[in-house]
């Protein structure tokens, strides 16, 4: 065993390892970049599913269901079985009132009207434009009642 020779890494080997670690961490950092449309898209997809569900419920029950919204969230309502009071689906796991996931939400319905889902199979088409102030998506309902995100 020769005591004059020491085992270890050279400066160049250490620098190569550090460069590789730097490149890998930069790649990971770029891939984690948040999608600015993520929350808005989630709100739109959830609204599409719930509008379809409410339409199915209105057709099976025979009572119209109204979709209402504000900047904080949205919900569904219909006339109760008896009386003039409204059923706001507070105990319903699917149609219960919900908050928007986007921090600031603007909603525009075209044509400007209340969104009422009724037992009819053919209805007036409409568009619901969701905007978080920077990005926007459109939920579209066809005359046949098909709801989709665009």
Any overview of this molecule?
The chain is α+β, with helices and mostly antiparallel strands. It has one domain (36-149): 3-Layer(bab) Sandwich (minor pseudopilin epsh fold), CATH 3.55.40. Helix content is 30%, strand content 26%. The strands form 2 sheets. Strands 1, 2, 3, 4 and 6 form a 5-stranded antiparallel sheet that branches. Strands 5-7-8-9 form a 4-stranded antiparallel sheet, with helices on one face. A hairpin with a 6-residue loop joins strand 2 (73-79) and strand 3 (86-87). The radius of gyration is 27 Å and the shape is elongated. The relative contact order is 0.16. It is found in: Cell inner membrane. This is Type II secretion system protein H.
Distance between the termini: 74 Å
Task: Write the CATH architecture name.
Answer: 3-Layer(bab) Sandwich
Total number of helical segments?
Answer: 2
| Poorly predicted parts | none
Quick one: CATH class?
Alpha Beta
For the biggest sheet, the summary is: 5 strands, antiparallel
Estimate the strand proportion: 25-35%
Tell me, what's the shape?
A: elongated
Order of SSEs: HHEEEEEEEEE
Helix % is 25-40%
Which structural class matches the secondary elements? alpha+beta
CATH superfamily grouping: minor pseudopilin epsh domain
The CATH topology comes to minor pseudopilin epsh fold
Tally of domains: 1
Keywords: Cell inner membrane, Cell membrane, Membrane, Methylation, Transmembrane, Transmembrane helix
Family: Belongs to the GSP H family.
Pfam family, one: GspH
Transmembrane segments: 12-32
């Amino acid at each position: 065993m020769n005591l004059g020779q020491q085992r270890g890494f050279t400066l160049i080997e250490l620098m190569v390892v550090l460069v590789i670690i730097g490149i890998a961490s930069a790649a990971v950092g770029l891939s984690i970049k948040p999608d600015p449309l993520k929350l808005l898209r989630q709100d739109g997809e959830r609204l599409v599913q719930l509008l379809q569900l409410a339409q199915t419920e209105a057709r099976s029950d025979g009572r119209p269901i109204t979709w209402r919204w504000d900047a904080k969230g949205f919900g569904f309502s219909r006339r109760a079985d008896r009386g003039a009071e409204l059923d706001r689906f507070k105990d319903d796991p699917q149609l219960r009132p919900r908050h928007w996931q986007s921090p600031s939400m603007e909603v525009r319905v075209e044509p400007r009207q209340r969104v009422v889902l009724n037992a009819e199979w053919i209805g007036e088409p409409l568009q619901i434009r969701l905007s978080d102030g920077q990005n926007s998506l459109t939920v579209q309902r066809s005359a046949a009642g098909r709801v989709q995100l665009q």
